[in-house]
Write a structure and sequence with these properties.
Cytochrome p450; alpha+beta; 13 strands; six-stranded mixed sheet; single chain; 16 helices; globular; disordered N terminus; three-stranded antiparallel sheet
């Protein structure tokens, strides 16, 4: 338990409660505006939603480590549901070695090589979906596309892919507290965990895909065979839900902002810009956690060593001290500096892949759809460490031939 000064602002809100998950904007505002650093009494940890504080902490891995876990569980002192990630939950110098391997797997050259095939897949999917008119964009577009192209690119087996999302969902629920969402996800992922443990292996992967590049690093002696399996797992635990929900938010934003849709339709090359502003406005993964390695003071608040700090990147992306009109979706703004992918040495290594996937899908939509609008009320999906939709009903009109 932390020793706190009496003047430290305290937040009684539980960010992972049903009510808080249903009101993400209100939750973010409370965390951000109560103070630079606040005490989250529901979980006995620190938290911040101020842009300057969140960015400072993410850029100081010596004081705020990742190896104790990037969720609220301290994986060094508490039992976790899986082995820590060798890249997400690691610090230099080991982190540097693993990141170098992942950077080679997801280099700009590799992403460029994949783009043509990813775009063709997006074109085919969008053509079929637009022709249907009314669809659930949450699953028919935002989920269907990454769930096809990413496992294919990795060289995963065709069978068993229905287990990938339950596994990833468990991973993000486990980053939060051991609440009902976590226990339900754990039960739902019983067979998914077994499948992923099998799919991580060299023998289960087509070596001509991205997974083969990872195992080639093991053959070269850069990492061990077990390390290679763990890096393959990273794609599953970090690269599916976040991309899916990021695309969902971009689709919803376009449906609700006619001027943005008109601009994208007139110039599909704006797809990347649309996605960036969507990421700033609605971070699919709203939190990152760090753990103090020593006593440190921020904003007049003194934190001791081995204390968790919950960083709300979603709140920081709406900080009026950093952004003008932060709650507006505006594709003309400069989005550089948004923290959705983190920043510093632990900035998301797969961000180029996520951007490429979303850009391909939004480009295809802009080229093939005349109009896009909501056809009902979106239904929020409750996951401790993610934001997205269970249902996103939309009406799409194809362009005239």
């Amino acid at each position: 338990m932390a020793t706190r000064q009496h003047e430290v602002p305290t937040v009684d809100l539980d960010p992972f409660s049903h009510d808080a998950l249903g009101d993400p904007a209100g939750t973010d505002e409370t965390l951000r505006e109560t103070g630079e650093v606040v005490w989250l009494s529901a979980h006995g940890i620190w938290a911040s939603g101020r842009y300057d504080v969140v960015e400072r902490i993410l850029r100081d891995p010596e004081t705020f480590e990742s190896s104790s876990g990037t969720g609220i569980t301290n994986v060094k002192t508490e039992e976790n549901w899986r082995k820590p990630s060798v890249i997400l939950e690691n610090d230099p110098p080991d982190h540097t070695r693993y990141r170098r391997v992942m950077a080679s797997v997801l280099s700009a050259r590799v992403v460029r090589r994949l783009t043509e095939g990813f775009q063709a897949s997006a074109d085919r999917l969008v053509a079929g979906v637009v022709a249907r008119g009314e669809v659930d964009a949450a699953t028919d577009l935002a989920e269907a596309y990454p769930m096809s192209v990413l496992p294919d690119a990795l060289g995963f087996a065709k069978e068993g892919r229905e287990h990938l999302l339950p596994y990833s969902t468990l991973n993000f629920n486990a980053a939060g507290p051991r609440n009902e969402l976590y226990w339900n996800a754990l039960q739902a992922a019983e067979y998914a965990t077994q499948f992923v443990n099998w799919q991580m292996r060299r023998e289960a992967i087509d070596q001509s895909g991205l997974g083969g590049i990872i195992f080639a690093a093991a053959d070269a002696g850069d990492i061990s065979e077990e390390d290679a399996e763990m890096l393959v797992r990273t794609f599953l635990s970090a690269g599916l839900d976040t991309t899916i929900f990021g695309i969902q938010f971009a689709l919803k934003a376009l449906a609700e902002t006619p001027e943005a849709w008109a601009a994208l339709k007139a110039d599909p090359a704006r797809a990347r810009i649309v996605f960036e502003e969507s990421l700033r406005t609605w971070a699919p993964s709203p939190y990152i956690a760090r753990t103090t390695t020593r006593e440190v003071e921020i904003g007049g608040v003194r934190m001791g060593p081995a204390q968790k700090v919950l960083l709300s990147v979603a709140a920081a992306n709406h900080d009026p001290r950093r952004w003008e009109r932060p709650d507006e979706f505006d594709i003309t703004r400069d989005t550089s500096g948004h923290l959705t992918f983190g920043t510093g040495i632990h900035g998301c290594v797969g961000q180029m892949m996520a951007r490429m996937e979303a850009t391909c899908l939004l480009t295809a939509l802009a080229q093939q759809a005349e109009s896009i609008e909501l056809a009902g009320t979106p239904r929020i999906k409750h996951i401790n460490w993610l934001r997205g939709f269970e249902e996103l009903p939309m009406r799409l009109t194809p362009r005239a031939a």
